[in-house]
Structures are given as structure tokens and as C-alpha cells.
């Protein structure tokens, strides 16, 4: 059974940092592009970052460039998203997804709340 389980979300003050993790199981993790998306209250889900199966190709949304870093560890079947210099506008549920361009599998998300 395919599972993607996000963790690492929480409440942080503006300017702070968080590291999100997404643990995968039930499929060949190393064969999939992995993505992070987010959905803010009242808004549609939006792309944040993507990393290729071996990590050699990385892409970010403009809102993430210079502040967020995606990485993966294929030995642990885990993808990470380092969030730095957080601002209130980053408040959202963050989801990881497996596959590209449209993820085939999704996690249930982890909530990030950034306060002033």
C-alpha cells in the first residue's frame, strides 16, 4: 500500500525555520520525481518545489526560491523541504506528492503556521 507521510510542520515566528519530511513506502521511491505543494486557507493548492528521482534536477516556485531547499535521501525513502526566512504568507498545509508533472500519489499534509 502506497503511503506518503509528512511531518515537521508547526507554529513558527516570522523569520524562523522548519524542516519538513515526507516518508514514502509502498512504491519504488527512487524511481519517482518528488514534489512539495502547499494550500493556504481559501486558496488552491500550489506547486512549491520538485526534485528528480536521483536529485540532479530541482525546480522551485518563485515564492520559494532563495528561501526553501528540497532534498531527498533515497536510502531512507524520504524527501525533505527546508523552510527558511518564513513569512506569514507561507502559512499553509504542505503536501508531498510522488510523480511528475502531476503527482500520482499524495500525502495528507502537514500544517505550517507562521506568526508575526
* Head-to-tail CA distance between termini: 40 Å
Structural class: mainly beta
The description of the largest β-sheet is: 7 strands, mixed
Principal-axis shape equals globular
Summed up, the helix count is 0
Uncertain ranges: none
Spell the H/E element sequence.
EEEEEEEEEEE
Helical residue percent band: under 10%
| Rg | 13 Å
Number of strands: 11
> What is the typical, i.e. mean, pLDDT?
97
Fraction of residues in β-strands: over 45%
Question: What are the SSEs and their pairings?
Answer:
Elements lengths: L2 E5 L2 E4 L4 E8 L8 E6 L6 E6 L6 E3 L7 E6 L4 E6 L8 E7 L6 E2 L3 E6 L1
Parallel strand pairs: 2-11
Antiparallel strand pairs: 1-3, 3-8, 4-5, 4-9, 5-6, 7-8, 9-10, 9-11
Task: Give structural attributes.
four-stranded antiparallel β-sheet, single chain, 116 residues
Describe this structure in words.
With 116 residues, the chain is mainly beta. The protein contains no helices and eleven strands. It has strands at residues 3-7, 10-13, 18-25, 34-39, 46-51, 58-60, 68-73, 78-83, 92-98, 105-106, 110-115. The strands form two sheets. Strands 2, 4, 5, 6, 9, 10 and 11 form a seven-stranded mixed beta sheet that branches. A four-stranded antiparallel beta sheet has the order 1-3-8-7, with no helix packed on it. Strand 7 (68-73) and strand 8 form a beta hairpin. The radius of gyration is 13 Å and the shape is globular.
